[in-house]
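Re: [ENG-882] Designed sequences occasionally contain unexpected residues at chain ends

Forwarding the minimal case from QA. Structure tokens:
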């Protein structure tokens, strides 16, 4: 499958393009429970195993809900499961509409907190937080449904384009030097990073060089209890397994009033997941003047992969 990697600089067009990606359903939709355990780690697994009768695990952007079906079979006396996605699961899943499972054909922002119940665990594995144009709206709905002491475990994708031969290799070395010159003094969660001679870039950019973690730390009513850059395994279009950089973030709901700062989508570049550029209108500190130069460098890097087969995603035929 070839992906166009079209860039949308108009905010309205960018929002429509994000919606179109979700509608077309080109994201991977068949991760099982073991995949969740490996990708999200021990914090997720401990919280999942502690769920008791009546407590809810919510998954946003669940695809075929395979992880949730695995959980229902492995933990017959565990908690209830709520899954939502913009496409219906297989017809055979209709039998799962029982006391412990509910599937909602909708976006996360359309979920009714009164219907979902006492949510103690939310997962978003390259789900709504990675695809929806309204990032702040998804976060607000998640945290509205989450009970104090409950957690949101999210996995975000990073991009690691590979340099080509000749002039592009020289361009890569230039970008690497620019990164080293601009990146000094920034925290470890800087949204563009160098690792083993390659530049990695978060697929979520907040103007001014703010990282996703800096934004999440400004939330009212939630605490960042884990932030980790890691490597996961992803499946390419040919069925091969490749290493892929990722970011794990765990938020725990506390008893303080909920306050989610607004974010305005400014643009996006089509990919799986898409690159999204946001403006944080009420950011707590002045923008870093180095950030725009860094952003421009990262944009040039991504051009190298345009026109290549989409890496890491292929649709599986439905049973």
């Amino acid at each position: 499958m070839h992906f166009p990697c079209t860039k949308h600089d108009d905010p309205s067009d960018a929002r429509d393009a994000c919606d179109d990606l979700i509608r077309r359903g080109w994201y991977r939709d068949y991760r099982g429970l073991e995949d969740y355990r490996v990708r999200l780690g021990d914090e997720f697994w401990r919280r999942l195993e502690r769920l008791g009768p009546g407590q809810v695990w919510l998954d946003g952007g669940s695809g075929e809900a395979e992880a949730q079906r695995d959980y229902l079979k492995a933990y017959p006396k565990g908690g209830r499961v709520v899954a939502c996605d913009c496409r219906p699961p297989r017809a055979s899943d209709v039998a799962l509409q029982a006391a412990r499972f509910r599937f909602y054909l909708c976006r996360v922002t359309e979920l009714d907190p009164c219907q979902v119940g006492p949510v103690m665990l939310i997962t978003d594995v390259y789900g709504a937080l990675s695809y929806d144009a309204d990032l702040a709206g998804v976060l607000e709905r998640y945290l509205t449904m989450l009970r104090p002491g409950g957690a949101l475990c999210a996995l975000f994708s990073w991009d690691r384009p590979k340099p080509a031969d000749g002039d592009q290799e020289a361009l890569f070395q230039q970008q690497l030097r620019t990164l080293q010159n601009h990146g000094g003094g920034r925290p470890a969660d800087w949204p563009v990073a160098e690792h083993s001679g390659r530049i990695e870039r978060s697929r979520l950019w907040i103007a001014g060089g703010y990282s996703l973690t800096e934004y999440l730390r400004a939330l009212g009513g939630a605490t960042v209890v884990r932030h980790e850059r890691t490597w996961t395994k992803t499946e390419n279009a040919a069925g091969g397994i490749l290493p892929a950089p990722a970011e794990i973030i765990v938020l725990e709901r506390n008893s303080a009033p909920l306050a989610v700062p607004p974010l305005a989508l400014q643009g996006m570049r089509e990919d799986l997941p898409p690159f999204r550029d946001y403006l944080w209108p009420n950011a707590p500190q002045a923008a870093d003047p180095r950030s725009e130069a860094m952003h421009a460098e990262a944009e040039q890097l991504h051009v190298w992969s345009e026109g290549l087969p989409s890496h890491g995603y292929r649709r599986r035929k439905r049973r």
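QA comment: On inspection the terminal residues look reasonable. Confidence is low (pLDDT under 50) at residues 182-188, 301-319. Proposing we downgrade this to a documentation issue.
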